Amino acid sequence: MSGLLAPVLKLSELVNSFNDEYVSTPYEELKQMTILQRLSRYNWTFEIGGILVIAIVFALYKLGLYYNTRMTDGLFTQLNDYFKNDQQFARVGFANKDGSKLQYLDEQQKTWFTTFATGRSAVESICVRAHLYGRSNPAAMLMERLLGTFFPSMTVKDLDEYCEIVVKPNGIYVANETAKPNANVSDILNNFKFVTSVVHKSSMNEVRRDNYYLSLTRTTESAKLPVEYVYMSEMNQLNEFISHYAPNFFQVLREASSILHCISFTDLPTEKPLTEKKWNANLLPRAVIRTSIPSNKAQFKALKDVIGSVIAVYDNFTKDLVQKNPHVFITNDLLKKTSQLRSQELAKIVKTMKQVEREMALEKKHEAEKEQRRLLKQSGDAEKFDQKKRDRRERRAKNKQKVRM
Amino acid sequence: MLNPQITNLLIMLVMMQLARRVDMEDETNIMYIRTAYVASMALSWTIYQLARRAIVAKNDLTTLKYVKPGNAMKGEGESLEVTTVRDYDLQEIDTAIKGIYTGVAMMGFMHLYLKYTNPLFMQMISPIKSALEHNEVKIHLFGAKPIGDLKRPFSAPSMFGAKPEGPKTDKKSVEAAERAGQGGVKRE
Hints:
The complex is a heterodimer of chains A (405) and B (188).
Chain A: H1 2-17, H2 20-24, H3 27-32, H4 35-41, H5 45-86, E1 91-92, E2 94-95, E3 101-102, E4 105-107, E5 112-118, E6 123-131, H6 138-150, E7 162-169, H7 185-189, E8 196-200, H8 204-210, E9 218-220, E10 229-233, H9 241-245, H10 249-255, E11 260-266, H11 276-281, E12 286-291, H12 297-322, H13 332-379, H14 382-404
Helix pairs in contact in A: 10-12
Chain B: H1 4-21, H2 27-58, E1 63-68, E2 79-84, H3 85-113, H4 118-122, H5 126-133, H6 135-140, H7 171-178
Antiparallel strand pairs in B: 1-2
Helix pairs in contact in B: 1-5, 2-3, 2-5
């Protein structure tokens, strides 16, 4: 052990040696000196080193914050402009209490960023969340990287940089500014209960691991899709849903291949529900787009095009449903099948839940018995208790014999 | 052809015998051993890097699905892996490269800090042997076809010829795992 600590001891000796002269000065001599004389005799190397380290840490902290802010300023300004001007959202971003506009919110040392848009036909809201590295703490970032490299199972889920866009449909189709919105919203939204996605091949494992709804899908390749992507859908018939409603979808996919991880249309929860209550509480039709953080013009354009495609899917699909188009892609047959799959999945969850409850009850019973035995032992009635148990067992055995005879 | 694990064992025994005959206190010998070790590590690293370059250049995006056996130590069950041939190959080769770094760190600690030279001597040959016997190197550098033992996903070779236990690739297991709904589990 002393061998292992040798370098630390050496360093401590070196630091102490800086002030050998000051420490060896007799107390009487120090007493006679003025404060300035004492300060000048003291070797301040260690303290100056400490202050320099603190200054460097502070500078890196500020630099990290500045870098993250610069990255997200670019991203959110462009996205908010796109939502406002190109997609005609009524409200984009946030507002302060004093009424001033806020492009985005930042949290946790500028590592999480959020913006929001709402007020549009077919789309209830769009929420964009971006996660960036904690550049303000380079030491922690380095440790996380190292740990992630050598012990992947020890890393946390949100370590990478990514941008997640959640688009929620509202089931209302308005053809123009003067048109009246349709009333049968819940009926329309009932048609969004299915899971279909297009996933980039480099992210297949991660998205299946992180999203419950994708872990219920089949992975299929298609000659129509660009080679970098696969379909992940509940049923193969759903594979063409996005391309049916989004014009030039394959071209958009090709252009976004450097940033896009997945586009999913789902109503099931992201986190695996462990109870029926949680299952019901987390059913919400939405589209989820997950990408890397775009860093150049082409990638920004690709991201906007992907979001545009998803909005187009909701626009066209809602229009088909509201106008009762006989060639609507999601037929009642398909919905029946997806509903059946959901019932099966829910039954599995309920079964598991009941099994866990039974096991817990059994454990509780065992513990209560143990406690009773302990109390009886303390009071000296343990033998009586054992005798009772033996008698009961014998009686049961006799009864069984009688039945056999 | 002998099982690689058995040949490793044989090499180990031979090197142990040789190590007895070498004076590990002699500075000249130590320098030769250090040079040989560094050269061996550099060569195996280069072999892996060449294979890595070949994998990236090939960019085989064929989808690969298999059921990975669970880790009993961590209390994990079987899980489905969906990846591409390219990513699978890169993962395999990166694991091997990481192994070199870990080995170098261990040897560095033992030799430079604890002043042992024996482990350095023992580790002179096996890294190159492992690199040349690595499945990815066989496929991408020596042009072996990915069939039989080289069929992805690879199974760990068994030492005494027993049937190796590896990932399941049969349609039934893959389909069952694919729809098992194991994703989105909150990690503590």
